[in-house]
Amino acid sequence: MSRISVRGFAVASATAVTTVGAVVGVAAGGQQQGSSDPIEATAADSTLLADIPAGQQAVAQTASLTQQADVQSTAADAEARKSAEEAARKQAAKDAKAKKAAADKAAAEKLAKEREAKEKKKDEVASRSATRDAGDFPQQASYTISEVQSMARQIVPSGQFQCFSNIVDHESTWNYQATNPSSGAYGLVQALPAGKMASAGSDWQTNPATQIKWGVNYMNERYGSPCDAWAFWQANGHY
């Protein structure tokens, strides 16, 4: 039993003991009237045990238990509130960690995509750019088709060579001196007007390497690449 309920019972018990003591005193002293005995006086002024309401002790016990239950309920509410606050704190920390992880992952993916895009762009630029310059080849009085094709393989990026070769096959059949009698188009890639190839070198009329260099640059600037130029040629019959 708790301290509170014991105290409640103590009050009721004290009342009962006082009353019993008074009754016993009266019995011992007889029926004398006007006695000055303190016990008798107390007995005369006290309520007999039989006169104590029958439910008094039950009421005291109920009040004690109610108070105890209130204290326990308050403690339980405080504990529940503390547990809820702790759970909320842990969940907030967990959510913050998950959010940071998601943000870090997104940042890493974005960085990887940017890096991949840069590498891809670099590869595209490299694939469209001539790998060797026309001046890297010694000039000759004349060139065979195989020699011209060998030069083209060294100048045109490997991924674009076949497309470049397809265009040259149709335009000049690899004759660097081929001339269109009606339009005046000239060379491997049939530049029109022919003098445009001078931007790649003054020897454009006699040097296949200069014509190849100009042709690659022209296809890159106008179509994006030799393969894009070949796709246009296939759709239109010219480029």
Automatic annotation (TrEMBL):
Domain Transglycosylase SLT: 164-227
Keywords per UniProt: Signal
Annotated signal sequence range: 1-22
Location of the region described as Disordered in the Swiss-Prot/TrEMBL record: 74-138
Basic and acidic residues bias spans: 78-135
Keyword Signal tagged: yes
Protein name: Lytic transglycosylase domain-containing protein
Organism: Streptomyces niphimycinicus
